[in-house]
Every structure is written in C-alpha cells, then in structure tokens.
Amino acid sequence: MRIALIGYGKMGQMIEEVAMERGHEIVLRIHIDNTEDFTQTNIAPADVAIEFTGPESGYESVKKCIDFGIPVVSGSTGWHDKLDGMKQYVEQKNGSFLHTSNFSIGVNIFFEINTLLAKLMSRQPEYEVTIKEVHHTQKKDAPSGTAVTLAEQIIKNLPRKKSWISGPATNADQLSITSERIDPAAGTHYVQYASAIDDIELIHTAHNRKGFALGAVLAAEYIAGKKGVFSMKEVLGFTPNP
After folding, report:
1. Which of 31, 93, 119, 139 is catalytic?
2. How many separate helices (H) and strands (E) can be counted in the chain?
3. Is there a single domain that holds both residue 135 and residue 188?
4. What confidence tens digit (pLDDT) does each residue in 80-130 have?
5. How far apart are the first and last CA of the chain?
6. Same domain for 214 and 95?
7. Which domain holds residue 198?
8. Which residue is catalytic, options 135, 161, 189, 204?
9. Is 10 a catalytic residue?
C-alpha cells in the first residue's frame, strides 16, 4: 500500500517503521512544519491515510482526508464529542473511516474483557468500580481516550453508573477516572472493582509504542479499498466481517 502519514511525531515515525517492515510505501508525511503540504494533489497517490495529530487538529485532519477521497485511520483523541458527527459525515460522503482510542491488539482484547466483566458485575452492587490511567508527561489529553472508552463500556453495561468524571466521584452514579503523568510511561490502565471482601482488577500495561503502530497499520490494511465506518472489532475479527 501507499500510505500518507498525517502527524509525524514519535508515533508517526514508529508507524512508518512498522509499515515499511510490512512492505508498504510512505508517500506523504505531514507534520507541524509542513501543514501547507496537506493538499488533495499531494495526498492523491495514497491508498490510505493514518492520522495521529492531536486533540486540536484531529477532527479537521480526518475531515480533509474524507473530503479528498482518501480512506483514513485515526488515532488522535480528545475530540470524542465530535466523533458521531464525523461518522455521519463519512457516510454522507461515502468515505472510509476507522477511529479508535487505542490501536494496541492487547488493549482491544482488554476492551472485550472489560465489557464482559461489567456485565457480570451488574448484579453485584457491593463492588465499587474505578478507573486509573498512567501515561508519559507529553500526553496532551487527560483522561486518556482509552480510559474514556473503558468508562463508556462500563456505563453501558453497569446500570448503577450513569456518567464518568475526571477525578473523585461526587455521587454514587459517577464513575471516577484518575490520571497520572509520569516519565517514562508508555501507558497503563487499571479497572478496579473493590468491595469490603475482595478486589478484582484488570490491568493493561504497554511496554512501548510498537503495539500501537502495528495495530494502526493493520487497520490501514483492512480499510483500504472499503467504504464505511469501521472499528478494531472488524480488524481483529471480534465481529463478522461486513
């Protein structure tokens, strides 16, 4: 495949390394110093774009790819409130789009286990659930997109929780997410169900960025040539392929 990288920081560079290992070609690299090169002419040779920018630019970067007719895989977080609107826009434009808060294969398995555990705990009111995430100090958003995804999965399947809050919960129907920024830390997420009798914890710890990069390239391989809105569930075979 021919890949356009929208965002060429540490993550973009790792994606480039993994993509080239898998026999792909990088035809465009957009970073903070050459945003004027993000044009339809320059991106036209690409089969797919992989976007890892930031909370401020993620939405607009994805929208430009869709407007230019390029399938786009997006890993930028911090614009979750606009995600549903983007999915509708992609469908209107007959585009191709895949967004996830975390491309790691391990984290996506973690998501599936988190959902199952929330369902099992829905009839166990004596357990209080909380989330904690730890990342490096350069991470721009807090809580992390992964933590928000975990929280939304729990809220969907645990009726006693109605919303999540960053910091300590102020009432019983809130799900608390605490965030820590420590160097070096590639990313650790904790989901804890605590009771007076015992605790149950789910923990995922990333050792480096390569797992995220591999997942992003796998997602790009999956959506190239397809139309629609996709998720990592389809990429990893957790749901039947469309």
Report:
1. 139
2. 8, 11
3. yes
4. 889 999 999 999 999 999 999 889 999 999 999 999 999 999 999 999 999
5. 21
6. yes
7. 105-205
8. 135
9. no
